[in-house]
Structures are given as structure tokens and as C-alpha cells.
């Protein structure tokens, strides 16, 4: 079997050269990181769950016309994706105060925000992914005004979809982080959703109890991260109810 060429490795994923020009294979690792990588552990089974949850969400977004880099699932840990040029901006959509916005603005965690708020951060681990404004983004050439408008419009569409999807299974979408890329097709270029959407990149709380079903369980040393991710997968209907809960091999339902 020929050795695959590694294109990029991040904290939670590895990108390999794809089988066709313009494609990549996205591999989900079991690494759990927080605080720009200063906290790090291996959590068996996490990558499998993130891959499957992200695949489920990206498939549904494709179906409703939200452009993404996702093509199809390859196996338990890998997806075939389109190669894109990543915009070096993290787009954060907040519906409920939690995490950094609570600390910055003194808003009690769990307080519903007056409306959904979009924030931007510059993707740079060495700098701690600092928050930036549209003025910074355009001044430094990270994205054009039109690209910012496209990303904001898509972010709000994705928020509408996610809040409805998770509301139906008793989960509140507190906030989430997404990334976008430039997809070049001949002489045309368009902005598409890239990276992943999973409990690693979202804050997901049980509607009735406010139990955290996301990476805050790792950030805050709460434990039970894989159990929480499995609960999200079960409610989405992609994990059998009678699964043993062992992180080494969750039984996944193919879509």
C-alpha cells in the first residue's frame, strides 16, 4: 500500500493528499487540546465521533444549499474533501453568553444574548487567536469586504440550521466556531464552509439541565468527554442506543 503524502497536520486533524486533483483526505485524530494547545491529551474514540458528527452535519448543510468542502465519508475517521485555500479567520457565532464573552463583558454564563452575535479571530496559535474587527481583516488583506459579507451570511444560515437541528433533540447551541475557505473552480472562486462542526467546535448544552455536551468538559476538567460526544451522536440518530459506551469502538449508523 503506497504511503499517503501528508499535506498538513493540526491539533485535531491531519490532511492527506486526495485520490484526485483538487481533493484531500481529512483524518480526525483522538487528540484533545485546549488553550491553544497548552493542554493536551489523547482520548480514545474522540476522533471517530467527531468525524461522524461533522459528516452528518456537513451532509445536511450540502442538502440545503450551504456550500461546503465536504464530499463524502471514507471510513470511521476520514472524509474526502475539496481542497480549499483557508481564510485565516475563525468565525464565532454566539447565541448565549459563555466562555470568553462572559469574561470580557462580565455577562453571567448562560445569559441569552439579545441577538446572535458574530465575532472574528485571527487564526494564529502563537498569538492566542486574537479577536479582530472587519477593519483589521480588510486592512491586512486576510479577506475582502465581499468575502466577509459572504462568511457572515453563511454563518447566520448555518446558525439557523444548527439551532433548529439541535433544538429538535433537546440541545441548545450556545455558540460555535467555523472556518471558511476559497474554492477555486476554473476562473471562478467562491467561499465555502471548511474544517469541521462537532462538539469540539461548538458549545452544546442540554436544554433541560444545561449539562455540557462539548469540549468544555475537557477544558474545565469535568471528565466524561467521550460519553458527552456519544450522547450527541445518539440524539442525532447516528449511534445505536444500545451501544456499550466504550470509547474504543462506538457502533455508528451509516447515513
Which features characterize this protein?
six-stranded antiparallel beta sheet; single chain; 6 helices; 27% helix; 13 strands; D-amino Acid Aminotransferase, Chain A, domain 1; 255 residues; five-stranded antiparallel beta sheet
Task: State the gist of this model.
By secondary structure, the chain is an alpha+beta fold. It has six helices and 13 strands. The model is unreliable at 244-251 (pLDDT under 50).
Structure description:
- The structure is a single chain.
- The model is unreliable at 244-251 (pLDDT under 50).
- The two termini are 28 Å apart.
- Strands 8, 9, 10, 11, 12 and 13 form a 6-stranded antiparallel beta sheet that branches.
- The protein has helices spanning 46-63, 100-105, 134-139, 145-167, 216-219, 225-236, and strands at residues 6-9, 13-17, 23-28, 31-34, 39-42, 70-73, 78-82, 85-96, 112-122, 131-132, 171-185, 188-194, 202-206.
- With 255 residues, the chain is of the alpha+beta class.
- The chain is 27% helix and 33% strand.
- It is built from 6 helices and 13 strands.
- The protein has a domain at 85-206: D-amino Acid Aminotransferase, Chain A, domain 1.
- The longest helix has 23 residues, at 145-167.
Amino acid at each position: 500500500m503506497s504511503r499517503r503524502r501528508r499535506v498538513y497536520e493540526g491539533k485535531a486533524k491531519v490532511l492527506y493528499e486526495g485520490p484526485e486533483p483538487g481533493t484531500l483526505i481529512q483524518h480526525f485524530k483522538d487528540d484533545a487540546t485546549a488553550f491553544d494547545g497548552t493542554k493536551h491529551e489523547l482520548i480514545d474514540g474522540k476522533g471517530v465521533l467527531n468525524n461522524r458528527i461533522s459528516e452528518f452535519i456537513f451532509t445536511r448543510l450540502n442538502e440545503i444549499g450551504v456550500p461546503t468542502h465536504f464530499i463524502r465519508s471514507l471510513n470511521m475517521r476520514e472524509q474526502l474533501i475539496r481542497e480549499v485555500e483557508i481564510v485565516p479567520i475563525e468565525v464565532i457565532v454566539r447565541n448565549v453568553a459563555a466562555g470568553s464573552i462572559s469574561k470580557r463583558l462580565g455577562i453571567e454564563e448562560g445569559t441569552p444574548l439579545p441577538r446572535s452575535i458574530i465575532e472574528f479571530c485571527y487564526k494564529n496559535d502563537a498569538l492566542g487567536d486574537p479577536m479582530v474587527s472587519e477593519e483589521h481583516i480588510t486592512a491586512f488583506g486576510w479577506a475582502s469586504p465581499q468575502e466577509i459579507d459572504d462568511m457572515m451570511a453563511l454563518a447566520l444560515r448555518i446558525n439557523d440550521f444548527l439551532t433548529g437541528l439541535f433544538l429538535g433533540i433537546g440541545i441548545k447551541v450556545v455558540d460555535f466556531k467555523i472556518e471558511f475557505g476559497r474554492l477555486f473552480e476554473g476562473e471562478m472562486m467562491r467561499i465555502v464552509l471548511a474544517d469541521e462542526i462537532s462538539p469540539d467546535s461548538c458549545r452544546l448544552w442540554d436544554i433541560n439541565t444545561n449539562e455540557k455536551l462539548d469540549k468544555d468538559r475537557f477544558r474545565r476538567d469535568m471528565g466524561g468527554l467521550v460519553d458527552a460526544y456519544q450522547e450527541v451522536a445518539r440524539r442525532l440518530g447516528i449511534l445505536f442506543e444500545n451501544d456499550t459506551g466504550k470509547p474504543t469502538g462506538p457502533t455508528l449508523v451509516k447515513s
